[in-house]
Amino acid sequence: MFDSLADKLQNIFSGLKGKGKLSEKDVEAALREIRMALLEADVNYKVVKDFVKSIKERAVGNEVMESLTPGQMVVKIVNEELTKLMGEKEAKLELASSPPTVILLCGLQGAGKTTHAGKLALHLKKQNKRPLMVACDVYRPAAIKQLEVVGSQVEVPVFSMGDKISPVDIAKAGMAEAKKNGNDVVIIDTAGRLHIDENLMDELVSIKEAVNPNEILLVVDAMTGQDAVNVAETFNNQLEITGVILTKLDGDARGGAALSIRKVTDKPIKFIGVGEKLDNIEPFYPDRMASRILGMGDVLTLIEKAQSAIDEKNARELEEKIRSQSYSFNDYLQQLDQMRNMGPLEDILAMVPGINSKQLKGINIDEKDIKRIEAMIQSMTMKEREKPEIIDGSRKKRIANGAGVTTGELNKLLKQFKETKKMMKRFTDMEKTMKKRGKFNLPFFK
């Protein structure tokens, strides 16, 4: 998502940055382009109008016009206003002072409520919570079974009473079950409809009154564009939602919903779904999203992903191996696995400042390539992995056959590994030299 909008905005700003001074006419022209880019991204018209007005009020002032880097100042202003538009800072879940915390999920059918009940449960479980999911969708065929399957995948219990009991009674009984078993979070999965109707709303209001939830999270499919904003507005008016989970942000939608929902409903986006896997859910950070859209990277998310994927003890051991020049193919294999745990490489690269979406379009990072590398390493003996210099012609033939690759591909891997070790040696030599001068410390992997 946001690729097209990001490309357009980054093009607009590269034109501004190239100018030594900006006139009011330059700013007006840039704002026209920004307005068009946002409308094409399916952002609500009124939201666009107010957003552009806010930028104009700041961008034509002395702060920008008299700046030594006026183009950069305009980008800074747009970044701040974009962050403000999406909610300024992360909106955390409101936890109950005395457990359990009750989270009511609502939304239309197909938005991903049941899947995101599981994703949210897994997210909370990682924070040492003990969630219980409650199956209150008694209408959609196999909805209860789906929640039970998701529950078993994330190893979170599911409370259900079949499809013959009223959802309100199920929700009440689910609360009693949580208190009895010491579950400190209850996630209630409710029924959706293909469209908003009175029965749906009446039932949700009844469940709300019965369990008094701490959070009412609306699950919205970002792929539906402006319809998502209309749905959010209607649910908010009827239920007073506390926040939004925006799903399918990894899709090719234009992104307008993400930029409009906060402004229209005055309720924050709390989580975003960024993939099909059950751990593909992230807290929503407006400032980080704004930075990504404007091509400024997202270093904090990158660091968090690295910290969750890389074991600190392993990182220290790896650092020591690099310093002592004992880095082997076994270490290389371990790093490949850790890198995969951080998510698709394209997504990781997109978080690096200075790399915009346009630069990544020509890069084709295939999972099959990584699997081929793994197969080649796994076809080596332990001695060959530790000392690749012993791999001669006959060994190469055996390894290539075992991995199902050509000797040419194997030679390429061996050459890359040799170059990697050389580069690491240069870094450690440079660190030693600079340390002697008391000017430098290179914290590898720390």
Spatial order of the strands forming the largest sheet: 3-2-4-1-5-6-7-8
Q: Count of helical segments?
A: 21
End-to-end span in angstroms?
32 Å
Q: Largest sheet, described in full?
A: 8 strands, mixed
- Tell the overall outline: flat
In short:
Mean pLDDT is 82; it is low at 439-446.
Layout of helices and strands, plus pairs?
Blueprint: H1 3-17, H2 24-40, H3 45-59, H4 62-65, H5 70-85, E1 101-106, H6 113-125, E2 131-136, H7 143-154, E3 158-159, H8 167-181, E4 185-190, H9 198-211, E5 215-221, H10 226-239, E6 243-247, H11 256-265, E7 269-273, E8 281-283, H12 286-293, H13 299-309, H14 312-323, H15 329-341, H16 345-350, H17 357-360, H18 367-378, H19 382-386, H20 393-403, H21 407-436
Parallel strand pairs: 1-4, 1-5, 2-3, 2-4, 5-6, 6-7
Antiparallel strand pairs: 7-8
Helix pairs in contact: 1-2, 1-5, 2-3, 3-5, 5-12, 6-7, 8-9, 10-11, 18-20, 20-21
